[in-house]
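Assess this today:

___
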Amino acid sequence: MDLSYTPEQQAFRAEVRDWMRAHVPAEPPASFDGSLEGFEAHREWEKTLHEGGWGMVTWPKEYGGRDLDLIRWLIFEEEYYAAGAPLRVNQNGIFLLGPTMMEYGSDAQKARFLPPMARGDEIWAQAWSEPQAGSDLAAVRAKARREGDEYVLSGHKIWSSRAVNADWAFGLFRTDPESERHKGLSLILFPLDTPGLTRQPIAQINGETGFAELFLDEVRVPVENRLGEEGEGWAICMATAGFERGLMLRSPARFQVAAKQLVELYQAHADDCGPATRDAVLQAWMDADAYALSIYATASRLIAGGSIGAEASVNKIFWSEMDIALHRAAISILGARAELMPAAPGAGDVGDWLDGYLFSLAGPIYAGTNEIQRNIIAERMLGLPRK
């Protein structure tokens, strides 16, 4: 693997860096989960990115992208995080649904949904999990009954990320009432202001509403909103999960920047830290670098015509557990002050480490629990028998 950048890639990095320097807001917008105002401020940032040609650089130009390869996307992400740019409120759309639609969507669906997704005009929520089907996604009970040119959606979705203020959602529904488990499921797109749909915000541990319950009571959507063929929902969702676990959702830059900040925190408090803390900081730095190298290798394989398979589960376990360990190291350095909010008297340089730590604890759960990922690795990669 050639770890050097070409002159063209270096020029692209400089272009991204210059644009970010000129456009990233000096004061970050309020959390997109904390209020509608914060959500809309992030929507405006998405529009600013699109105007600069940075909405999703890997997409074809006709859909709002730059038609660049994954290596340039990784370079973009490195400069994006290094600049302290706002988190992407439309990550469910641009990182998960968008790549899936490129593969399974019709030309009409791509033309209808991808450009407004890239512009931030339509923000997407993911509506897969249900009270009885969290990690066991094949246990979905929500139904889509076909009546002529429409599907009638009924059921209960939970832990739908960004659904409090989002415009659209993509959900998994059982279109064959006689089917069981992985069979008879379809992926359907539906607007969140449709009659018959009720949203119930779910407060997180920090009081923000990053999730919502969705209650669907005879919600009607056109059949043309189905992505792929009827009954192919499971395979399509697994492709989306591959992007979520293996590449798009958690780019290496996120952890490389955090590891750099951890090293700086350690250096400021080195005299008060023992060998165990030093080792934890070093491990975090090495793990972030190893993850980056792994993702560069994955991107290179995809560019050469390969695909993301069950190894996406290895990536997901690695980055989610690395994130927890990295933040635990920071908490250890800060000691008792780690419990303080940044604005509290005497907080000093606590920054956002507590908030990051609390969020990291969800990592082994979302995008498919790590227990499930270990089962996938055992069965599909190692060929071990099912219990």
